[in-house]
Automatic annotation (TrEMBL):
GO terms for molecular function: hydrolase activity. This is HAD family hydrolase. It comes from Micromonospora rubida. The keyword DNA repair does not apply. It is an enzyme of class 3 (hydrolase). Signal peptide: none annotated.
Length: 262
């Protein structure tokens, strides 16, 4: 744990991936998704595309989406890529008209399915204790996260029984804006009736989370190290107020503020 003397928060805002959960990519997700898409197209009488065709374009879309997200981290107030745009342009731009129309019409469902198939998610060490500790201190906790499909995150939290300890969940795909747009954090603070300066924001990326917290004027920006934390797409000038290893470490940091602010 590396930290300056931090103000005690009146709200705790957490990223989802890398903070609440650690994800492991499933090697078979592209083939599984492509198989389902070809079956959907075939049911509508659209048979021009093979599984190999769809696998190729789903892989290309995922790579393009990753590059797009890195570019958006340079903007002052980026908007989120819509579900329809992802499927109509990133995946199906050169598909036959019927196939393109079909996946565009089912874009929300396909984004959800991609999110379900793409990764297996595990709770990070100490997340239950952290949420319990915040509850005992009467500190509301909100999820503020970029997402292709926020409903996948909502479903995981509900299945894990963690949603009951959350006051709020905000996801970029549902709101149309993405970090490092500071409005995402500011909206959460308005919903919780706290000033950004009274909140901590905790994320695992420099270019999206640390930059977003500083832009929003939060009381403390906390970086939680995860697998991809130091894989920066470019040099980031902003630095966090604290660095922690996992939710258990974050709870220890929160406990330290009790000693200074009884």
């Amino acid at each position: 744990m590396i930290a300056a003397r931090l103000p005690r928060p009146r709200a705790l805002l957490l990223d989802f991936g890398g903070v609440v959960v650690q994800s492991e990519r499933r090697d078979t997700w592209v083939t599984e998704l492509a198989t389902e898409i070809v079956a959907m197209l075939g049911a509508a009488g659209c048979t021009e595309l093979t599984i190999d065709d769809v696998v190729r374009d789903v892989r290309a879309a995922a790579a393009a989406d990753s590059a797009w997200k890195n570019a958006m981290s340079r903007l002052s107030a980026p908007a989120e890529l819509t579900w329809r745009m992802y499927w109509s342009e990133f995946v199906a731009a050169d598909w036959p008209e019927q196939a393109r129309a079909l996946v565009t019409s089912q874009a929300w469902l396909l984004c959800r399915r991609q999110g379900e198939l793409r990764s297996t998610r595990f709770a990070r060490n100490g997340i239950e204790d952290l949420l319990r500790g915040a509850r005992e201190r009467a500190i509301p906790v909100a999820i503020v996260s970029n997402a292709m499909s926020g409903i996948v995150h909502r479903d995981w939290l509900a299945q894990a029984g963690l949603d009951k300890d959350l006051a709020l969940q905000l996801y970029s795909d549902e709101l149309g804006i993405r970090k490092p747009n500071p409005e995402l954090i500011r909206l959460a603070c308005r919903a919780l009736a706290v000033a950004p300066s009274d909140a901590w924001y905790v994320g695992d990326n420099f270019d999206r989370d640390v930059v977003c917290g500083i832009r929003a004027g939060v009381g403390a920006t906390v970086l939680m190290t995860a697998r991809s934390t130091h894989d920066l797409p470019f040099v980031v000038a902003q630095t966090p107020d604290a660095v922690v290893d996992d939710p258990a470490d974050l709870l220890r940091l929160l406990t330290r503020t009790d000693e200074r602010h009884p």
